[in-house]
From TrEMBL:
This is 2Fe-2S ferredoxin. GO terms for cellular component: cytosol. Belongs to the adrenodoxin/putidaredoxin family. GO terms for biological process: P450-containing electron transport chain. Coiled coil: none annotated. Keywords: 2Fe-2S, Electron transport, Iron, Iron-sulfur, Metal-binding, Transport. Its cofactor is [2Fe-2S] cluster. It comes from the Bacteria. One of its GO terms (molecular function) is 2 iron, 2 sulfur cluster binding.
Amino acid sequence: MPQIVVLPHATLCPEGAVIEAPVGQTICDALLEHDIDIEHACEKSCACTTCHVIVREGFDSLNEPEEKEEDLLDRAWGLEANSRLSCQAVLADENVVVEIPKYTINHASENH
Ligand code: FES
């Protein structure tokens, strides 16, 4: 089973975490199953950007993002070249390292 190394996030996962998840599961589902309560405002239907993660390692092992995901990602806070919507990013048999960005669009709009 691939491992997901989650880098520390101030509120969701202050110490960071290492979890195991089955091939074929999305990163979002894997995090939620392990009590890392990443936002998923559209219920994982690829219609928001709140489940955005940056894949620091193992990016190329994931499925190719669809156009819709790419379009949405353009609006995500803190977009990077290795950004994915975690509810659309499906694990293959390779470990990944993910970073949950500090803010989502929801937070950003509340605070600014
Ligand atoms: S939960 Fe909305 S796009 Fe992933």
